[in-house]
Design goal:
heterodimer, A: mainly alpha, B: about 240 residues, alpha/beta, Rossmann fold, six-stranded mixed β-sheet, four-stranded antiparallel β-sheet, 9 helices, 10 strands, nucleotide-binding (chain B), ATP-binding (chain B)
Chain lengths: ~325, ~240
C-alpha cells in the first residue's frame, strides 16, 4: 500500500518533470505552474489549519508579503532573484512570529477573525505606503521563460511537500500538533508546550507561503495589493483544504488540483461572471463542511489500517519487561 | 524516613472571593499511595491542578523532590516526573489510542519508532493493547479512563496524580483498575489519588488526607480517618457525629 503510493507519486513526479520537453503550449505550462503553486499554498496552509486546528484566514498575507519582499528587494535594493527569494520566506516567517504572539492566544472563530483582520490591515498598509507603489502596484524586471518558472515552481513545491511530509507524517512533530488541535489543556499534561508548538506551526506554514509569493511575483512580473494581498488567496486556500481534507497532505493537494481546475475552466468560459465564482466557492465550503466533514481525501481513505503490535513480528514482550519500562525501579510483585 | 517526594506547604488557592483551597499542608513519601478525599466541592481537583501546574497557588508552595515547583507550567512538571489524569477525561478524540499514548511517550523517547514501541508496552500493561488502533472517541468510559492512566504512565513518571479513575466504572472494571494501581505501586510509583468510591480508597491508600470546604480536616491511616469525628460530620452531618 505504502509502496504503491510512493510509486504513484514517483510516476506523477517524473511525468511532470518531462512534460515541458514534449509539450510546448505556453498556456498549458502556465496553468500547470499556477496549479502546482496552489498545491504548495494549500499544504502550507494546512499545517496551521488542519494539523494544528487554527483556521488562518490571513494566509494570503504571507503570500503577499513574500511577493512584495522579492519585488522591493529586486527593484529597489537591486538584489538578484536568488538572494531575494529566501528573504521572502524569512519576511513571512517573521510576520507569523509577530502576528502569532497575540493571535495564537485566540481560538476557533476568534483566531479566524483576527487573522483575517490582520491580512486586511496589511493590504491597507501596502495600498498606502510609498515603497510598495501603493494601489498602482509594482512592476518587476521581466524574465520571460515559462519553462524556468515551471521547473522552479515544481521543484519548490516538491521540496515543500517532502519537508512537510517528513515533519508532519514521519517525525513526532505532526502528532504533537494534532494533540494541540484535539485538546490543548490535555496536551500540556503530557509535556507539550502549546505556545511553542503553535508558533512553530504558524512559522512553518508562513515560510513556504512567502517563498511561493516571491516566485509568483517574479513570474507574473506585476504585483498589486489586490492580486497578492486580497481575500482571494486566503479564501481559495481555505476552500481547497476543507474540500480536499484537513490534517493530511494529500487532501489539500487534491483539493487544490480540483478547485484550481474548476477555476481555470470557469475563467476560460464564464469570465463575465466572476462574482458567481465566489458564490460557488462559498457554497462549496458550506456543502463540504456539512456533507464531507473529513474532506474528499479523508472520506476516501477513512481510517488507515493501523499499526501492528510489535510482538506479533518480533520478541514477545513479557509482562515484567513491559512493566519495568513503565516504572523504572525493579519489579517487586 | 527519607525526604518526602512531595510536600504541599500551606497552599491556598483563591478564585476572586472564593477560597477553593485554604492553607492545606501535607506530604507524600516515596512509594506510598495517599488518598485525597472529601465531599463534593471540597477543593480536591483544585489542589490537583495546583500540584500539577494548571493553577499557581495564591499562597504557599509545592515542593517536588526538593525543588519548588509552584507555578511551573504543566509541561515542565511532566518533564520532571509528574504524571496526571483528568477527572473529565481528555482523550485526543480524533486520534487512535496508540497515537494518544505515543504523544506522551515522546517525552522520554524523542524518536517516533521508540515512542511507539514504548506506547505499546504501556498499553499492554494497562490492558488497552487490543484497542490500540481504535479511535479514542470510540472507547467506552472505562476505556477512556484507562487511556488517561496509559497517557500518564507513558511519561515514565515517578509520581502519579489520579483524579477519579474508578468513579463511573462497573465493579468488574473498578477491580481491574484497582489491580492496576496496586501493580504500579509495586513497581515503586508514588501515587496521590482522588476518589469518591470509599470501598476503593479505603483499600488502596496507605494514608488519607481529608478536605472539606478547602480546609484539611483530617489526615491518617484509613481506619484512623474513618473514625475521626470531623470526617464523619463532614460526610454525614452534625447528628451522626
Amino acid at each position: 500500500m505504502k509502496n504503491r503510493g510512493a510509486t504513484i507519486l514517483a510516476i506523477i513526479g517524473a511525468a511532470l518533470l518531462i512534460l515541458p520537453l514534449v509539450m510546448h503550449d505556453t498556456f498549458v505550462l502556465r496553468v500547470l505552474t499556477e496549479g502546482i503553486m496552489w498545491i504548495g499554498l494549500a499544504i502550507a496552509f494546512d499545517v496551521i489549519a488542519g494539523y494544528t486546528g487554527y483556521l488562518n484566514f490571513g494566509h494570503g498575507a504571507f503570500f503577499g508579503i513574500g511577493a512584495y519582499t522579492i519585488g522591493i528587494l529586486m527593484m529597489q535594493a537591486n538584489l538578484p532573484f536568488w538572494a531575494a527569494l529566501p528573504l521572502g520566506g524569512v519576511a513571512a516567517g517573521i510576520t507569523a512570529l509577530i502576528a502569532g504572539i497575540p493571535t495564537l492566544r485566540l481560538k476557533g472563530a476568534y483566531f479566524a477573525i483576527a487573522t483575517w483582520a490582520l491580512s486586511r490591515a496589511i493590504q491597507q498598509l501596502a495600498l498606502n505606503v510609498e515603497f510598495t507603489g501603493g494601489p498602482d502596484g509594482m512592476r518587476l524586471e521581466a524574465f520571460l521563460n515559462p519553462q524556468f518558472f515551471y521547473y522552479l515552481m515544481l521543484i519548490t513545491v516538491g521540496v515543500i511537500f517532502a519537508t512537510l511530509w517528513y515533519l508532519l507524517e514521519r517525525a513526532p512533530f505532526g502528532l504533537k500538533l494534532k494533540a494541540i488541535r484535539e485538546d490543548e489543556e490535555g496536551a500540556k499534561a503530557l509535556g507539550l508546550n502549546p505556545t511553542k508548538l503553535k508558533m512553530q506551526s504558524f512559522i512553518l506554514s508562513a515560510l513556504p507561503t512567502g517563498i511561493l509569493g516571491g516566485i509568483y511575483a517574479y513570474w507574473i512580473t506585476f504585483i498589486d495589493p489586490s492580486s497578492t494581498l486580497g481575500d482571494l488567496v486566503s479564501d481559495q486556500a481555505v476552500v481547497m483544504v476543507v474540500f480536499g481534507g484537513m490534517g493530511t497532505l494529500f487532501g489539500p493537494a487534491l483539493g487544490a488540483i480540483l478547485i484550481f481546475a474548476f477555476k481555470t475552466l470557469f475563467w476560460a468560459y464564464l469570465s463575465d461572471f466572476q462574482l458567481l465564482y465566489l458564490i460557488i466557492l462559498g457554497a462549496l465550503i458550506a456543502i463540504s463542511v456539512i456533507f464531507i466533514p473529513n474532506g474528499l481525501w479523508g472520506t476516501m481513505v477513512k481510517r488507515k489500517a493501523g499499526a501492528t503490535r510489535p510482538e506479533q513480528k518480533a520478541e514477545p514482550a513479557s509482562e515484567p519487561a513491559a512493566l519495568s519500562a513503565v516504572a523504572a525501579p525493579e519489579e517487586g510483585n | 524516613m527519607a525526604e518526602p517526594i512531595l510536600k504541599v506547604n500551606s497552599v491556598t488557592k483563591c478564585f476572586g472571593g472564593l477560597t477553593a483551597v485554604d492553607d492545606v499542608s501535607f506530604s507524600v513519601e516515596k512509594g506510598e499511595i495517599v488518598g485525597l478525599i472529601g465531599p463534593n466541592g471540597a477543593g480536591k481537583t483544585t489542589l490537583f491542578n495546583v500540584i500539577s501546574g494548571y493553577y499557581a497557588p495564591t499562597k504557599g508552595s509545592v515542593i517536588f523532590q526538593g525543588n519548588d515547583i509552584s507555578g511551573k507550567p504543566p509541561y515542565h512538571l511532566a518533564g520532571v516526573g509528574i504524571g496526571r489524569t483528568f477527572q473529565v477525561v481528555k482523550p485526543f478524540a480524533g486520534l487512535t489510542v496508540l497515537e494518544n499514548v505515543t504523544i506522551a511517550s515522546f517525552l522520554k523517547h524523542p524518536k517516533k519508532a521508540d515512542a511507539e514501541r514504548h506506547a505499546w508496552q504501556v498499553l499492554e500493561t494497562t490492558g488497552l493493547a487490543d484497542r490500540a488502533n481504535v479511535s479514542a472517541a470510540g472507547l467506552t468510559l472505562a476505556g477512556r479512563k484507562r487511556l488517561e492512566i496509559s497517557k500518564a504512565l507513558a511519561l515514565d513518571p515517578s509520581f502519579l496524580l489520579l483524579d477519579e479513575v474508578v468513579a463511573g466504572l462497573n465493579p468488574t472494571e473498578a477491580d481491574r483498575t484497582v489491580e492496576l494501581i496496586m501493580k504500579l505501586k509495586a513497581q515503586g510509583l508514588t501515587i496521590l489519588i482522588v476518589e469518591h468510591i470509599m470501598r476503593v480508597i479505603m483499600n488502596i491508600s496507605d494514608r488519607l488526607v481529608v478536605l472539606n470546604f478547602g480546609k484539611k480536616i483530617a489526615e491518617g491511616t484509613p481506619s484512623e480517618v474513618s473514625s475521626d469525628p470531623h470526617v464523619v460530620q463532614a460526610y454525614f452531618g452534625e447528628e451522626a457525629a
